[in-house]
Amino acid sequence: MSVKVACVGGGPAGLYLSILLKLQDPSHDITVYERNPEGSTYGWGVTYWRGLLDRLHAHDPESARAVEEHSVRWRDGVAHVDGEQARHRGDEGFGIGRHRLLEILASRARSLGVRLEFDLEVDAADLPPADLVVAADGVGSALRTRHAGHFGTEVRAGRNHYAWLGTTKVFDAFTFAFTETEHGWIWAYGYGYGPEGSTCVVECAPETWTGLGLDRADEAEALTVLEKLFADVLDGHPLTGRSAAGASGAWLTFRTLTNRTWYRDNLVLLGDAAHSTHYSIGAGTTLALEDAMALSAALRERATLPQALAHYERERKEALLPVQSAARHSAQWYENLPRYIRLPPEHMFALLGQRHSPLLPYVPPRLYHRLDRAAGRLEALRRLKRWLGPRIARTVQARKLAARD
User: Fold this and answer.
1) What is the spatial distance between Cα 34 and Cα 314, in angstroms, rounded to a whole number?
2) Cβ neighbour number for residue 227 with a 10 Å cutoff
3) Cα-flanking dihedrals φ and ψ of residue 77, to 5°?
4) What's residue 246's pLDDT?
5) Which of 280, 263, 376, 366 is nearest to 323 (CA)?
6) Nearest to residue 1, comparing CAs of 257, 217, 308?
7) How many CB atoms lie within 10 A of CB 54?
8) Burial class of residue 125 (count of CB atoms within 10 Å of its CB; 0-12, 13-18, 19+)
9) Distance between CA 372 and CA 379 in Å, rounded?
10) What's the predicted TM-score (pTM) here?
11) What CA–CA distance (Å, rounded) separates 152 from 313?
């Protein structure tokens, strides 16, 4: 049966959902509303992994081929720690410019008959008439905020400050750079997204941020400070700030967003409007696209809209549990960087790769490294590690919750 769908938000999640729904039934009447002008997206590049690319090929080979063709790839990760370097071979990763990704998805959606309305702000109090309204309008979703009490929205702010930047330096590996200053450590994550440059996310603790004067500096002054601090990995290339990409320049603290429920009548949350996970695990775009896959499948397989939306919510909440746990522990690893940074670079980099582990925060780092190496050789120790980590984490989390009450 043909349905009318209004998708508010023209990011990857909204556009990909419109593609999948049109592929399921070309008679569906689908409009995507985006408040910004076409091509004005903020951001440099996004990262994803082989598993997502395989799923994209399974759902829509045509757009998947275009995404793969315009992506760069890497297998190595490299960490620079005050002049020392460690390099590891890892899983295959990909980067693509955000502008290019949206261009590919918008073109594919149009070719299937989706209407795209750019530069049009949808009033949260006066939604377009539709059988289904999709709130794909990001972490600050106006549609979700209007009914925040119903959705049970909770936002938890992280401790560290970060800035999302770009650079003309093209990194050949996923690059971590840690620099010590008199006010503490500051670090960057860098990954290429095309021949024109890379994304570079800079993070530091609040006391480092204020000590370096970054809380008082304008964007140009801050970029000058950061270019000097990371000169060894930038190789003379400049950093580009948010204002050059059409957004207001600002340092942020990451907001982890959760919702008790993801739908209200015919309104459903998608992507960052429903959930956010810390950027240090590089999963934001992947999770948004997987939301679109799950919602389109639920709408196809369930007899009624309420059944479809309930199934979508259950499936995605369950799938997100391990990812949210990994993101939480990853963020905490960086918030506790002094605990690990004095290890030999090879050991520190190995624990950087283990930062998602719920066991790591409760075991001395040098001991954990020895146990991890031994676990690689002994199956019984691997099983003990997998069994013990979540139990310790749950116990500590329960104690924290009890202490709040």
Assistant:
1) 28
2) 15
3) -120, 140
4) 47
5) 280
6) 308
7) 11
8) exposed
9) 11
10) 0.90
11) 14
Mean pLDDT of 127-132: 94
Unique residue bearing structure tokens 């539709």: 130
Q: In 45-97, which residue ranges form alpha helices assigned H by DSSP?
A: 50-59, 61-69
For residue 83 the two structure tokens come to 């002049």
Taking the C-alpha atoms of residue 178 and residue 346, their distance in angstroms, rounded to an integer, is 14
Average pLDDT of the chain, as a whole number: 90
43 in the Ramachandran plot: left (φ > 0), alpha (ψ -120 to 50) or beta?
left
At residue 282, φ and ψ (nearest 5 deg) are 60, 40
If you write DSSP's letter for every residue of 133-182 in order, what string do you get?
EEE-S-TT-HHHHHTHHHHT-EEEEEEEEEEEEEES---SSEEEEEEEET
CA atoms within 13 A on the CB side of 298: 22
CA nearest neighbour of 45 among 196, 255, 179, 178: 196
Rounded distance, CA 190 to CA 166, Å? 9
Local confidence band at 154 (pLDDT 50, 70, 90 cut-offs):
very high
Position 162, amino acid: Y
Rounded CA-CA distance 187/171 in Å is: 16
Which H or E run contains 8? Answer: strand 4-8
Residue written as tokens 């709040």? 404
Token pair in block for residue 329: 């522990």
Distance CA 272, CA 230 (A): 30
Residue corresponding to tokens 């769908």? 5
Residue 335, token pair as written in the block: 């918030």
Q: What DSSP assignment string belongs to 253-290?
A: EEEEEE-S-SEETTEEE-GGGT----GGG--HHHHHHH
pLDDT digits (tens, 9 = 90+) for 184-242: 999 999 999 999 999 999 999 999 999 999 999 999 999 999 999 999 999 999 999 97
